[in-house]
Amino acid sequence: MILLVVIASVLIAGVTIYQYSEQGRDYHENRVERKEEQVLQSIAYTIRETTYPVNTENLGLIFRDEIYKIADVQNVNFNIYDLEGSLIKSSRPSFEADSISNCLDAQILNHLRDSDDKRYVQEQRAAGDNYQATYTYINDTRFKPIGIVNLQYFEDNTFNNKELTEFLLRLGGVYLIMLFSAIFLAYFISKYITRSLQTISDKINRTNLTRRNEKIYIESPGQEIGKLVDSYNRMIDELEESAVKLAKSEREQAWREMAKQVAHEIKNPLTPLRLTVQNFERKFDPQDPEIQTKVKEFSKTLVQQIDTMSNIATAFSSFANMPAQQNETLNVVKIVKLALEIFTEDYIHFIADEEEIIAKLDRTQLIRVITNLVKNAIQAVPEVPSPRILVTVSSEGEQVKISVADNGVGISDGYRQKVFEPKFTTKSSGTGLGLGMVKNIVENYGGTINFTSQVGKGTVFTVRFPKQS
After folding, report:
1. Domain 223-320, what fold?
2. How far is CA 99 from CA 82, 121, 135, in A?
3. Where do the structural domains in the chain lie, given as residue ranges?
4. Higher pLDDT among residues 116 and 195, named by residue
5. Residues 6+ apart with CB under 8 A from 404
6. Which PANTHER family match (predicted)?
């Protein structure tokens, strides 16, 4: 028992360290690729809009001022070289210029020229930290290379290493407890095997189907007692085999449900994120005198949605409820209005009977309830000539009432009993966990959720929560 505990602790610690290392590596690779793609898109846009002839000799003029704007918007410094590897322009401040290579090594140019995707990534260490330097061709409007862009990305593993250390400390504490528990059990088992029929009786009385049961071992038992012990031990073996099969089945089912719920929750902030990007792209005007302010607002919205997805991933990674419920004293009117700000559809309207309705709820979970209901309403009105979604908040006795109404396709009678069932959906995509999760959140706070619907006319979902007493 002690040996198994030690071996298990070492194996789990090793797997954990490997997993954290792989997770960190994948994160940094994806992040540097995104940064590089964003910079290349900005460079391509500048080249399309410039009035200078697009060639290697004019790169310094084309990006004389634009390189600083791009670096500021993308929050990353980068350098531009000509095709021979000579530095043309850098976005770094002048006092950092000495740390920039004025000429690229021939090895880098050869790797870049010979690569299939015309991209070379160099991984190095500096001052004890890892960093990646990427090299990619800058193409003109006819996709002919006219220069090389170099982006340096320093990997910051502080947060990842802190989480790994904390997890290993907790894991070590748990296994120390298990080790001492194993020693303690081993001592008493050695006492039990010296007992006679009373020992067998005690063991049988303590047999429990909900936990692991010990076998009976008696040295030199009599014939009758030996048969009884053998029968009992065979029963324990069969019970453990059944328990293992059941546990395996339950774990597999739990992971399937977990994966579906993670996918659903990650997709929730992606929809408003996509809408925000599309809206910005449609209204973007480089000549607008307020373009810098709008870009900052756009970046702030993106960061907020990315933070939402990060919080979701963090909550699931710790095997906790997503997220853990917090009883906060909230102004429901204000929070509902805040939740609606991520939607850009002009047919979404909000009405509140009062400016302030106080209830004890979790801010994040209340926002999740509203966004799920509004998202479902948006999906119900794609082909309606004059779509309309109305979100209302009002007091109803000792309860706060939140309604989300749409004039969409409605819900047919055949689906009414299945709407809140997990994994049920009438859409071609999605996991069908949204309304089931909303129902769980509402009921965990002592609330109720119901709906009325007419096919072809629309649907109204109504949520009621107890107000603060």
Report:
1. Helix Hairpins (1.10.287)
2. 19, 19, 17
3. 1-155, 223-320, 328-466
4. 116
5. 370, 373, 374, 377, 389, 390, 391, 460, 461
6. PEROXIDE STRESS-ACTIVATED HISTIDINE KINASE MAK3, SENSOR HISTIDINE KINASE
